[in-house]
Design goal:
Elements lengths: L1 E6 L2 E9 L9 E9 H6 L6 H4 L18 H19 L8 H11 L10 E7 L7 H10 L4 E5 L14 E4 L2 H9 L4 E4 L5 E2 L12 H4 L13 E3 L4
């Protein structure tokens, strides 16, 4: 079950499916993916300047070591890009349309659906700031405020997104700035806050769909989260 739209050369895909990721859990979830039109046309993840922006783990601006660039995540993204390319070339990926979005949401809640989504994962690939805030508000309500999301763009013009997203930080300098801007943080290789309960080093005590502490200032979590480098 999908809904996709294009804005400023970035194609956003909303996908409703059963989770296949053990860290995420066994929920049916809505996940958001954000690809550049260059990636879709070339089926090449390395063309990520427009959708990953200045992420330090992107190919275009960083070292290319994002965890999505390897293993089953990589092959899943390639398959998704191939599907989106077919739809794009048919002229069926259009700018965001509220009516089409509402139809997608209604399908996820249909009585004919065996399992309704109970978890939202924003930015399963790409920057979730490409999601309009109105879309985020609707989707978080659909899953009863059970969601996660992370952004590398917290230091820029996206202050309103702190309600829903965590500030991804990679050193103490970034962490201190994010805190001064009143973001909750997800600190890679940090020690401030709570060690991610779904991480290997914390013993995988739970899964993301149960925990959902990485949910900005409006979600379940109230403190910062840290994790060992997993890239």
């Amino acid at each position: 079950m999908y809904y996709q739209f294009i804005e400023n050369d970035v194609i956003t895909c909303l996908s409703c499916k059963n989770s296949a990721n053990t860290k995420l859990g066994k929920s049916k979830l809505i996940a958001t993916y954000h690809f550049s039109i260059d990636q879709i046309l070339s089926i090449d993840l390395k063309q990520d300047a427009k959708n990953c922006l200045d992420c330090p783990f992107s190919y275009s601006s960083g070292d290319g070591k994002c965890y999505t660039h390897k293993g089953t995540q990589y092959f899943g993204l390639i398959a998704m890009m191939k599907r989106l390319r077919k739809v794009l070339l048919k002229g069926e990926i259009l700018p965001f349309d509220q009516t089409s979005f509402e139809k997608f949401v209604n399908r996820t809640q249909s009585k004919r659906v065996k399992r309704k989504p109970t978890f939202l994962r924003m930015g399963a690939y790409g920057e979730p700031i490409f999601l309009p805030l109105s879309v985020i508000k609707t989707l978080t309500a659909v899953v009863n405020n059970n969601y996660t999301g992370y952004t590398q763009q917290w230091g820029k013009k996206y202050e309103d997104y702190k309600t829903y997203l965590m500030a991804s930080c990679h050193n103490s300098f970034e962490y201190n700035i994010a805190k001064s801007l009143n973001w909750r943080t997800f600190f890679v290789d940090g020690t401030d806050g709570i060690n991610c309960p779904a991480s290997d080093e914390a013993g995988k005590r739970t899964t993301c769909d149960v925990c959902a502490l990485c949910s900005g200032t409006n979600g379940k979590g109230k403190t910062d989260i840290f994790i060992k480098n997993h890239f």
